[in-house]
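Example 3.2
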Amino acid sequence: MLPDKRKSGCVIVQSDLTILLETDHPLYEEARDSLLGFAEMVKSPEYIHTYKLTQLSLWNAASAGLLPEQVIEELRRYSKHEPPQIVVSRILDWGRRYGRVKLLIENGKFVLRCDDKYIAAELENTKAVAKYLLKRLDEVAFEVDIACRGHVKQALILAEYPADDLAGYRKASPLAFSLRGTAASGQPFGLRKYQSEAVDLFHLKGEAHGGHGVIVLPCGAGKTIVGMAVMAKLQTETLVLTTAITAIRQWVAELLDKTTLTGDLIGEYSGEIKNIKPVTISTYQILGASEKHRELIDSREWGLIIYDEVHTLPAPVFRMTAELQSKRRLGLTATLIREDGLQSDVFTLIGPKRCDVPWKVLEKSGYIAKAECFEVRVPLAESMRMDYAIANKRQKFRIAAENSGKLKVLKRLLKEHSGRHILVIGLYLQQLKEVAELLNAPIITGSTKNSKRDELYQQFRDGEIPVMIVSKVANYAIDLPDANVAIEISGSFGSRQEEAQRLGRILRPKPGENRAWFYMLVTSDTVEEGFAAHRQLFLAEQGYPYSVIS
């Protein structure tokens, strides 16, 4: 039985829809995991974390079956005080808006059906929605052009009526295969419990309200395996979209190793190879480059499209996805954070968040490495202080990021972690080249040929290269299971999702102690400190505190 919440709660709900959470309270972790289901983190200093209730966070909760009344009950469970009435009202008003408009197939027609005649009248007089309404069928329903299915959903969410899309999917080309019990590499293989649950939450027994949505799992937790398991569940031809050629080839290797698919059934569609097969893996860049690649979409009756690293989805692919609503859509990511604010488009066009497993839960189970995070404060080099003093804010950030004093700290960290597999990650190419020369270590940047990248990654995996210098190209979908130290010497301003992805490079489970170390080098008393604090937000939400070293 829980202690009396009025005396020992760890949460304070405020009338501006923010939620304060005490981190040193015995119920902290339990309350944090609850809040993750319906609120967004805003900031996370040492003792009080701040969350925010938003329309999108409540709509995601509603799509997962968490009713507004249940959200209120969760807040009351952990609150020191009764939540303000205005907050209760907002939760009820916003949460109940989800699904009041449904998209259906009725008598062969694509229909938008409202809960009542007042919503129907409102939408008919909302310009952004009305242009898609072909004709009124009755006082609460309209016929809509099914070719505009995605665009209608975008218009509805702007009108604050997120649709429950129950129109189902077109018949697709079948593809029979299965997951292996023993991988081709000889290793035993099977789905972990959370991976099986993620597949079931996406599939929802084949019902119309399933088959579209996003699975959120930490880096190293096997998102690719979840994708393959969904493919095996659906038994249909599949198009996989990912971030780079290296990621394409990792998908191919995993499919050949862990499924009964053979090489003649798997195709690569990239800048180097144009090969369309029943399972085809391509990149966002190729798909969004020009209309000529539309042939990739139209060439087969795809039953499933997998969006790997869905948080990176570029605008051209969003536009194309709006026209692909008749196909099942699975998004895979470690974080739904988008610094451009387009989370609502992911929600609308790919689908709601179906599963989000906290990082620390998997760490405790040994499924990802136990990571320690450090912010290392480095004084600005004397030779750079005057340039910094007279620079504008953007120039100040670059000067701080390229602080030559970081090189001395870097060498010290490398000595401390000698014998481990170390990644040095940065943003600015000149800085990275200087580091590579100083350490006599290989470097991978956007200009490195794919064949050379693959060679260096393999040498790193094999232990032939103990230290590797990488630019932003290593942020996503790179499988380096033995990497256990990452040192970030510069980053993309306050990007929370980049910070999460970089930590993710070292979270693959490892034999033995299963530990990892992540260092962020920050120039003290500069603008870089503020950006660093923002970068850390998502990881702090997941339970990764940063120890500050001066």
